[in-house]
Structures are given as structure tokens and as C-alpha cells.
Amino acid sequence: MANIVKNSSSIRKAAPLASRVLQDYDYWLIKNYGKSGTYLTNAKTFLKTVKLGGTVTSQLNSYAEDMSLTIQSFLRRFGRFLEINGIDFVHNDLNEKRLPIANIYVKIFIASRQDRLQGEFSSTTYTTILNGYFNLIGQDLRSFNKRSAEKYILAPTLSDYTKRLYRSVLKAFCDWALIYQGSNDKDLSSDQKAVRKGLKLISLQSLREISSIKVKTSSEQVKRYHKDSLNEKQRLQLLKACSTPSERAIISLMAWNGLRKMEVPRLVIADCNFKQRKLAVWGKGKSAKSKVQIKFFDTPIKELTKYFKKSGLKSGKLFPGLTNRNIDELIKDKFQKLKLLSSRVKFTSHSLRHTAGQIMYDKKVPLEFIQMTLRHAKMETTLVYAQKAIDRRYYKSMPRNI
Question: Given its phi and psi angles, is residue 230 left (phi above 0), alpha (psi -120 to 50 degrees) or beta?
């Protein structure tokens, strides 16, 4: 029993806070999809139910089972985020009973910046970040120093964006505390004098050191794309590694026509129009009534023709019984056999969609056609393929000397 408690405690200590995970997820959604909205709300609702013990992914799968298809779609995106960031356990701090503002120091700081917060970050963001730091140091201002601040700001579980955000908020608080400590007694009320007395537990040197903390970000981290993509040779190798017609059909739909993982199990046989070379796709978060017709490419048509002949299917689901997990397992198995997985390159099922988009761009397909094929709501999303191509050509084509 003692051993179990010890292991549970170590997991909890290493696990990121649910509130931090939500901040990273919010940024990830905005960066990749342009907005967070309902996706973030559903993730928060789920995280409030998380308990220490089982992995957060297993709890997410159980939670989503009884939900509607729409909610399952929202939660699948959160599942991808957890997978990409390697988050196995989460400490649920969302249900902890505490005031929105942790202490008088945070309260007065937030009040002093109300006129500026709307143009920067929300007061909620500032409060959450400062609460997290004060909780880390046990509300003890004597532990408010560079060492504890670096531990908080530079935590390995945080994204580069979040590290910079944390650093910005703590710097703002330290700059404010420096000014507050230097305020004239005549300008302060009795309560404010008490606050200043408390703030004096933080040394001026610590405040200056925290303000000067740097968050180092390499150019490779700044240019981190949604997913890595395969080249044409690797894509063909992946198709050849498939052992059955159904596997080849699935891979071709994703790596050539760019279907998302969730879109493949939704397909029905009636969606495939070989004669008109059109494929009807039920996109993310949409109903079957809002399917979008896209151009059906040669390779998927060829592989699906073989699949129909072998399976004898005439109507109903295109891939009966197929699940997202089946697709993940299939693609991971092929990547491993081809030795495409490494610590440097992280291919996932979604990489096949990016493979389709990148190869289309490299073959001079107009961006607006790529956008239509991949069904991006915004052209900014499609432009990632152009940026990746520019980055590749820059190092190859830029003159050595000018």
C-alpha cells in the first residue's frame, strides 16, 4: 500500500496542472485553427472530471463514449493535443475551492492594471498565472525568488509560447512590486502600507532578477509546424507496406486526398463517385447533411476499386467497424516498419493529411485548390505549406555570398 501511495504521489507531482494544460490548448487551437471556443469549453468540462490514477487519455475515451458525435468530435481534437504534447497525467486543479484571486498582492496588482489588461491579456489569465506561482511557493513571499520563478516559468511541460507568457506576467508583477516598494507613505492608505510591508519580504534583487529571466527559443522551435509530412518516396513506401486492400484504401484516402482520421470511418459507399471523380466528405464537427464534394484522385480510386472487388460491399459504411484507434494503430505500425519514427521527426496519423497538402503544393497545385481539397476554413491554414516550401528552398537556393 505504501508503494502505491508513493507512486501516486510522484505521478501527481510530475503531472502538469489542468489549468496550465488548458492555457496551452487555447493557444494551440488559435494557432492551428484560428479560434478555440467550444473546443476549449468541452476540454475544460472534461478536465474537471479527471482523477489521479488512470491516464488522461483513457479517461477521455471513457468520458466521450456516451457523448453525441459532435461532442466526440470536439474531444478528439483535445485528444490529439494530448498525444502531440505527450501528456499522460494531469493534476486536476479546476475544482479546488479557492477565490479567483489568490491573495491581496495579486488583487491589488490586477486592480492597478485594469486599464491595460484588455489590450494585453485578460485579468483571468494574469490571475491564473500568478495564482499558480504563489501556490508553487506556498503563498510564502520569502520564496519569491529567481530560483522558484525559473522553475515555474521554464517548466519542461510548458510550450515556448506559455513560457514567454508566464515570464511576461511575472515580470509585470515584479516591475509593479518594485514601484510599490518605492512609493511614498503619504500616497498610501493603511491597507496599502500593509501590502508594501508584505512585499518587502521579497528582496529588490530577487524582483530585478526575475524581471531579467530570459526564455530561450531556437529558430527550429519557432518554426515548429502542425505536423511533419512525408515526401513522395516515403508516401509510396507507406502504401506498399500495406498488406490488404482495405489498408491501402485507407492510406490512399488520407495521404493523397488528405482526409482527416475522423473522416474516414464516416464514409459510406455512396460517397464515392468514380465516374464523376468526386468524393463526398463529412468534415469535422458537421452533420452528414453538410458533406463537401472534392476531387477524387487517381490513387485512391485505384485502391478503392480493388477494395470493392475484394470486399464485395455494395452499400452502407465504406469501412464497417473501423475506428479512429484502428487507424492510429495501422499507421503507427507502418511507420515503425519503415523506420520513420524517431525523436526528431514525430509522424502521426494527421501527418498523412499534411503530406497530401505539401505534395500538392510542391507539384504547383494552386493554393485555392489545395484549400478546397483540404476544406480549410481560412487560407492562412493552407499557407503553412507555402511557408514550409519556402524554408526548404531558402537553405538550398540562398547564395553563399552576396
Answer: beta
